[in-house]
Amino acid sequence: MQTHLLGYPRIGSNRELKKACEQYWSGKTSLQELLETGKTIRNHNWKLQQEAGIDLIPSNDFSFYDQVLDMTLTVGAIPERYQDVISKESNTELDLYFAMARGYQQNDLDITAMEMTKWFDTNYHYIVPEFQKDQQFKLFSNKIINGFIEAKEAGINTKPVIIGLVTYLLLGKEKENGFDKLDLAQNLLPVYIEILKELENHGASYIQFDEPFLALDLNQKAKEVYQFIYGEIRKQFPNLKFIAATYFDGLKDNLSLAAALPVDVLHIDLVRCPEQLDEVLNTIPETLSLSLGIVDGRNIWKNDFGQSQAFIKQALNALGSERVFIAPSCSLLHSPIDLDLEKNEKTLSPEIKKWMAFAKQKVYEIVSLKKLASGNTDYPSLQQAAENKKAIDNRKVSELIHNQSVKDRAAVTTEEDAKRNSPFSVRKETQQEVLQLPLFPTTTIGSFPQTKEVRSWRAKFKKGELTAEQYDDLLKKETERTIRWQEEIGIDVLVHGEFERNDMVEYFGEQLSGFAFTQNGWVQSYGSRCVKPPVIYGDVHRPHPMTVYWSEYAQSLTKKWVKGMLTGPVTILQWSFVRDDQPRSLTCRQIALAIRDEVNDIEKAGIRIIQIDEPAIREGLPLRKAEWQDYLEWAVEAFRISASGVEDATQIHTHMCYSEFNDIIQNIAAMDADVITIECSRSQMELLNAFADFKYPNEIGPGVYDIHSPRVPSKEEMVELLKKAQAVIPAQQLWVNPDCGLKTRHWDETEKALIAMVEASRELAKSYTIEKV
User: Staple partner for 634: which of 106, 494, 551, 585, CB 3.0–4.6 Å?
Assistant: First the structure.
C-alpha cells in the first residue's frame, strides 16, 4: 500500500500567503519577498508530509492565486487584452498573472479581470479560462517543472499535480460562437506532452491528473476526447505512472470510461459516494490500481477508522496490497490547516475539538490507516485506534448535539410556512406605494470597507482592551458616517455597513445555538481572500435577536430606507462545516426557522426592506443533474420559510454571485424574492440572458461593477452595462448595484466607484424618461 495526498493547503498556518500577496499588491514588499514566502510555505508543507510518512507527496498544489489560472498561464492561454501588460518591461510574469486575476489599472492601461466562478460545489472560486476558435497554445510558464525541481533539491521526489487536459478545457468558456472548446484538445495536447517530457527528464515517476469531470455528466464527445487524449499521452510516456484523480462525486455511468483509460491508478471519492466501491472493484482491470479517498478532504470531522478499515480491507481482498493506495477524498485545500493551533476553549470546547481533524491531522490519519491496515500492532497504532473509536462513539451520544424542541419545530413545518400572503404582482404595487422608490433605484449589497481601524477595534474588544460601551460607540460613529455618505451621494436604499460583523456567516453562527468556532480554521475562498467557516455540530436555533439592534439604529439616522441584512439558510449551511450525522436538508430547515424569527423581528422594528443573501444556493447543487431536484426542493423551501412570515409591504431582497443560472432559473423564480441582485459585470451581463429568456417576473439588480478587483470602473462603462441590461430586462424591473459586498475594498476606490454608479443610474433614468416622452 501507498499513501498520498491530492493537495495540501497553500495559505500557510497563519495566512502568510494572504499577507504577502496583499503587501506586494500594495507595493509595500518586493517580488523577491513574495517569492520567498511562497517557497517557505511549499517547503514546510513537503517536510510535514515527509516526516509524517506520506509516500507520494504532491507538488504544484501551491498557487499564488488559483490553480486554474496557473494552468492558463502555463499553457499560454492569455487573453489578448493583456498583451500590453506583457509588453511593459517593468512587469514580471507574476504581474501578468495577477492582472489576469484582479484586473489592471496603471501605466495608462485599464484592463478588466478574467471571469471568476465556483469550483464545482465548493466555496472556492477559480479564474475561468477564455477560449477562442482555433486557439493556439504554448508553454509559457515553467511553474510545474520548477516546483518539481525545487522539491527535488529539498530531497523529495514529488508527484506533480496537473489539472487534466479535458477538465481544464471543460472549466473554460468559449468567448465566441461557432465552436466547441473540446475542439481545442489537439492544439493543447503538445503543451501537456512538453511538460511531461520535462518532468520525466528531471526524474518524475508519478504524475497526478486531476479529472473531477469524470464524476459529472459527460456527453459522448467528451468521453471520446478523454479516450483520445490519454491514449496519446500513454503512447508518448510508457514508463511514467499516471494517477487519474476524480472527486466530489462517484464515477457512476462514467466508470467504464475511467476504468478503460490507460492510467496506472484511479482515485475515487468514497466520502461523497461510498456506495461506488463494490462496482469499481468489480470493473477495473488487473492493470489498474485503486486510490481510496476515505478521509474527508472537505469537512473537519475525525475519520471513523472502523469504517475506513472496512473499505481498505474490501479493496485489499479484491486487489492485493500492491494495488491499493490510501488518500483523502480530494485536495486538503478545502480544510483548515492545523487543529493544534486551536487554544480557545470558550469558542471550541475540548469535547467538540476531540471530534475534529484539520489538514495536518488528516495527514496523520492517512498514515495511521495504512499502519492499521498493514497489521501494525505497535502501541502507538493501537492507542490511536482506541482514541479514534472513543471520539467517534462520544460524538454519537453527546448531549451537546440534540435539542428536542428544535427537532419538534422543524418536524411540524408546513407548506403554508413557505408562502407569502400574496403573489408578487400584488406585493409589488403595495411596496411601491409604501417605499416610493425611483426608476433604476440604487443600492449596495450590504457591507462597506472594513478598514484596519475597524478590525483593530474588534481585536481590542475581544482582548478586553475596549469595553462593550466603547466598542459600541466606535461602531455607531462608523455606521453614522457611512449612512451620511450614502445620503450625500444619493444612493436610494441604504445599508448600515456591517462594521459589527466579522464574516457574513460567522457573525450569525456566533449567535445561533448548535455552532462552534475556531480561531485559525481559515480556508481559501479566492486569491488572498480566506474565510473561517463555523462548525455546525448540533441542532440549530436562535436564542435571541441577532441584527435588530444595528438595523434599528441605522434606520433611526435617516429618512431613507435602510435594508436589514441577513445571510440565508442555504448559504449558512454551505459556508459552514456541517454535521454529518443527519441529512443536510434537516439542518438547513432548522437554520431557516432561526432566520425566519430574525426577519419577523426586523420587520416589527420598522424595517421595510430586508435582504436575505443566498450566494451559495447554486453552489449547493449536486454535480449530477439527476440529483438536482431533491436538493432544489429543500433549498428553495428553506429560503421561503425564512422569508415568508412578513407582510406584503415588506420587500424581500436576495443576493447571488458567481453562478450560472440557466439550468435553475425556474427554481430561482420559485424563491419568490421581490428583488434579486446578481454578479454580472465580469460576464458583461451575459448572466441576464437566463432571466430574460425565462421572462423572470420579479425585480433584478445586475451588478455593474466588479468588487473583487481593485479596478475602478468609469460612469460610461456602467452606463453601457446598464444599457445591455435594459435591452433584455424591462426598465421597471431593474435595480443598480455593485456585484457584491464591499467589505474587502478600500474606501478610496469604493467612493469613486459608487459615485460613478449613482451618476450612471441617473443618466440612464434621464435618457429613459426622454425616450418615453
Answer: 585
